[in-house]
């Protein structure tokens, strides 16, 4: 009875693991993916045209809605300010948005995830702002204005489609129209295109193909109303990052189905062992007139009962576990989850796996087991001794230094070869999954880090529209620890293949260390030329001498000539590859006039004389003091000079941390596979105990202790784990490479990096699995009594 209960429990656990793993990962995927979809962008509520104007008039909206092809119009007041925070350099820029009615904006809406809408003197923070500073409801945030700091009480947290300060590093918040009007913020009189207070009009069109003609018609209406237009932009939808996030979850599902496959093998072995144990029962049923189908049906009903007992709890635990994982991981991104939803397709998939996989896995062993004749069934009952392997016996006699306990453990390989093979295969899957996950995480970390290691810089400084290269050089000349100051640029471009990450570098750079694959580096005076990464060249087929057509954020086309292929990686989602251009070329591409690019600087990199963390931190603090002194004295307006200061090493860690959610999910799946492997090996060892009862009795009769009997099955488990490690090490590398290629194709281009320590971790994982799986079968074997064992037959 105990044996039957054990078999039943193994079947239920095997089914439950498959359903739990698949449901949990799918539910986590749906929950996080829904939040990602909202955060990245909801295209239906995002504007197709945005105009920055000198003023807003409530009577404008009806006239603009009457323009042909216009679906929706939304006015917005936007304020740029400095938010005082505790992190260096002591402040960060923040964008404050206000609509005439915060609760019902027709375009670019936001959702209150906690708290309430703000009134005058209050503010609602974007959820991702918590990655920039420790802020929560009830806190007071301080903003710099023309007359000093203004305290605002935080009354809510929001999430906005297309906005994530955690990844962009740019804070955002919401205030009422009345509250924004009370803010005494600056407008840049010498930079009318970049005021601290901006008035914007967003438009949604019906037919995107007519967007240019529609924009011209809107401009005419505004001109007739005596409204000055500073800029017109055509925001693009953020669908590429969403596709790549979907790619991450698709690869997770591939790993989950490995766990489902292992569950199927586990059920196959368990049912086979059950049939072997009940051979005499099958013979008796046939003696009483039972047909093969009737006998199979009785066992299939047993499998269905086990499926029912496992599938429903598996679904419940999977949904609960998936939501807990999603809720735990979301704040670390950070990401605001939406309302709880339960997709019907997830439940249907769980039911299909919970009932379909066990039935399919049980059919073959049931068919073979119930084909046995009455005579074969009755004569086969008892001990399956297996064929004696005389070659192994002779070899064991020669190798006298190996203990008898070890040989007894190794003998099990030759008793049920097919079952041992399936067990080794199952353990190899577990080991390979650990190797794949470790290789992927190592490769992603190395790729992200390599983007920054190409820059021999210690500090990055972001600059506002008023700051020039000559000015920043003069301002920072008092900091003695700076060795090199060099401007650079960073941005993106849209191509026919997807989003391209752009780096603007000085042709005679002293900080950036380029690694040319082919072609040549920039020469002084080069314009409209580009170096593309090897990953991008491989995907697109572009070669040296070809032209690359790109569009900027205003949808303005530009053509660059490819002069070389460079070894350069990307560091985030939404990037199909990387490209390097002369910094002046990038600035012009981003809208800086040609006659101003020579002294323009949007970002500068600093190389310290001493690369220690203490020196770098001192530089950051000194820059922060210079920036605050400049704004206090009025030499530059707030947000117009030094905007942000970063330690480059912190940026490396920030980008690497952005992948931690993916790492946790990958390792979670690997652990699920490992649990399935533990149960599968425990099933094999339990079957071995059943089949070797008389052998165990002989050992006990000869004086073997309980500990020695337990060692036999521990050695068997460790041996299977070691063989699985050897097989996994051989097959794991090509599988890891193939998995990484899929990751590069669907998620982000990464380099294939192997960490030798991964093989050690893989070995320890498999030996740990073998040890855990051996505990219960070894204990059961050690507790068997000699009298019961010897009269087994």
Structure notes:
- The protein is 52% helix and 18% strand.
- It is built from 23 helices and 20 strands.
- Strands 11, 12, 13, 14, 15, 16, 17, 18, 19 and 20 form a 10-stranded mixed β-sheet that branches. Strands 2-3-8-5-7-6 form a 6-stranded mixed barrel.
- α12 crosses α21 (706-746).
- It starts with a helix and ends with a helix.
Overall geometry: elongated
SS element count, helices: 23
* First and last CA, distance: 17 Å
Low confidence ranges: 187-195, 381-388
Structural class, judged by helices and strands? alpha+beta
Strand portion, in percent? 15-25%
- Average pLDDT for all residues: 81
Rg on CA atoms, Å: 34 Å
Report the strand count: 20
The helix fraction, in percent, is 40-55%
Largest sheet: 10 strands, mixed
In short:
The protein is α+β, with helices and mostly antiparallel strands. The protein is 52% helix and 18% strand. The radius of gyration is 34 Å and the shape is elongated.
Layout: helices, strands, pairs:
Blueprint: H1 2-40, E1 49-53, H2 60-65, E2 70-84, E3 91-98, E4 110-115, E5 122-126, E6 140-145, E7 148-160, H3 165-168, E8 171-174, H4 177-182, E9 197-205, H5 211-224, E10 229-233, H6 239-277, H7 279-287, H8 292-329, H9 344-370, H10 374-380, H11 390-398, H12 404-410, H13 417-453, E11 459-463, H14 469-476, E12 482-495, E13 498-505, E14 516-519, E15 529-533, H15 534-540, E16 547-551, E17 557-566, E18 577-582, H16 583-589, E19 603-608, H17 613-633, E20 642-647, H18 648-657, H19 660-691, H20 693-701, H21 706-746, H22 757-783, H23 786-790
Parallel strand pairs: 3-8, 5-7, 13-18, 15-17
Antiparallel strand pairs: 1-9, 1-10, 2-3, 2-6, 2-9, 4-7, 5-8, 6-7, 11-19, 11-20, 12-13, 12-19, 14-17, 15-18, 16-17
């Amino acid at each position: 009875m105990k044996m039957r209960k054990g078999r039943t429990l193994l079947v239920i656990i095997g089914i439950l693991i498959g359903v739990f793993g698949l449901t949990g990962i799918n539910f986590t995927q749906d929950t996080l993916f829904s939040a990602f979809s909202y955060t990245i962008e909801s295209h239906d509520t995002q504007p197709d045209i945005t105009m920055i104007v000198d003023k807003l008039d409530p009577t404008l909206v009806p006239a603009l809605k009457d323009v042909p092809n216009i679906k929706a119009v939304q006015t917005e007041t936007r304020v740029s300010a400095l938010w005082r925070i505790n992190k260096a350099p002591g402040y960060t820029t923040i964008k404050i948005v206000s609509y005439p009615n915060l609760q019902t904006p027709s375009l670019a809406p936001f959702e209150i995830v906690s708290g309430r809408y703000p009134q005058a003197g209050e503010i609602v923070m974007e959820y991702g702002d918590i990655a920039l500073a420790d802020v929560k409801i009830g806190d007071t945030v301080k903003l710099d204005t023309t007359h000093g700091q203004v305290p605002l009480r935080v009354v809510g947290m929001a999430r906005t489609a297309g906005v994530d300060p955690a990844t962009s590093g740019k804070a955002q918040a919401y205030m009422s129209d009345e509250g924004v009007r009370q803010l005494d913020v600056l407008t840049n009189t010498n930079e009318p295109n970049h005021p601290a207070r901006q008035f914007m009009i967003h438009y949604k069109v019906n037919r995107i193909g007519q967007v240019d003609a529609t924009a011209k018609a809107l401009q005419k209406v505004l001109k007739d109303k005596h409204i000055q237009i500073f800029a017109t932009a055509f925001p693009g939808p953020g669908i590429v990052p969403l596709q790549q996030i979907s790619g991450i979850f698709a690869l997770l599902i591939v790993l989950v189905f490995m766990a489902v496959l292992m569950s199927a093998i586990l059920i196959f072995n368990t049912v086979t062992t059950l049939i072997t144990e009940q051979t005499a029962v099958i013979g008796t049923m046939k003696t009483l007139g039972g047909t093969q189908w009737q006998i199979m049906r009785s066992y299939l009903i047993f499998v269905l009962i086990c499926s029912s007992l496992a599938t429903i709890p598996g679904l419940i635990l999977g949904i609960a576990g998936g939501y807990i994982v999603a809720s735990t991981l979301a704040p670390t991104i950070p990401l605001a989850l939406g309302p709880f939803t339960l997709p019907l397709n997830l439940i249907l998939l769980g039911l299909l796996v919970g009932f379909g996989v066990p039935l399919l896995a049980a059919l073959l062993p049931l068919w073979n087991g119930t084909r046995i004749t009455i005579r074969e069934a009755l004569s086969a009952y008892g001990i399956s001794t297996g064929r004696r392997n005389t070659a192994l016996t002779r070899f064991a006699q020669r190798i006298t230094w190996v203990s008898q306990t070890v040989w007894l453990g190794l003998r099990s390989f030759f008793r049920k070869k097919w079952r041992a093979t399936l067990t080794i295969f199952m353990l190899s899957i577990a080991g390979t999954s650990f190797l794949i996950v470790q290789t992927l995480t190592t490769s992603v970390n190395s790729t992200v880090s390599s983007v920054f290691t190409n820059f021999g810089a210690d500090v990055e400084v972001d600059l506002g529209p008023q700051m020039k290269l000559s000015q920043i050089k003069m301002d920072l000349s008092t900091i003695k620890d700076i060795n090199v100051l060099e401007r650079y640029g960073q941005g993106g471009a849209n191509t026919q293949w997807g989003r391209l990450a752009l780096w603007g570098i000085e042709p005679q750079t002293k900080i950036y260390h380029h690694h040319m694959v082919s072609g040549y580096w920039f020469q002084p005076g080069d314009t409209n030329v580009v170096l593309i990464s090897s990953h991008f060249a491989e995907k697109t087929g572009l070669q040296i001498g070809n032209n690359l057509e790109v569009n900027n954020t205003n949808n303005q086309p530009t053509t660059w000539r490819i002069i070389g292929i460079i070894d350069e990686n990307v560091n985030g989602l939404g990037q199909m590859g990387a490209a390097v251009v002369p910094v002046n070329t990038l600035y012009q591409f981003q809208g800086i006039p040609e006659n101003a690019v020579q002294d323009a600087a949007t970002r500068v990199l600093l190389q310290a004389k001493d690369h220690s963390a203490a020196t770098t931190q001192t530089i950051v603090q000194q820059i922060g003091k210079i920036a605050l002194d400049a704004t206090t004295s009025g030499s530059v307006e707030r947000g117009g000079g030094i905007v942000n200061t970063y330690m480059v090493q912190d940026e490396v860690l920030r980008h690497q941390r952005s992948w931690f959610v993916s790492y946790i999910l990958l390792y979670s799946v690997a652990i699920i596979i490992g649990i399935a492997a533990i149960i599968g090996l425990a099933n094999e060892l339990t079957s071995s105990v059943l089949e070797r009862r008389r052998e165990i009795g002989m050992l006990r009769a000869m004086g073997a202790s309980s500990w020695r009997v337990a060692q036999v099955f521990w050695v068997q488990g460790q041996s299977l784990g070691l063989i699985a490690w050897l097989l996994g090490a051989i097959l794991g590398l090509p599988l890891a490479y193939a998995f990484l290629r899929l990751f590069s194709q669907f998620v982000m281009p990464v380099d294939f990096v192997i960490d030798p320590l991964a093989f050690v971790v893989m070995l320890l994982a498999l030996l740990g699995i073998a040890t855990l799986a051996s505990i219960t079968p070894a204990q059961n074997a050690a507790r068997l009594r000699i009298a019961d064992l010897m009269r087994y037959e």
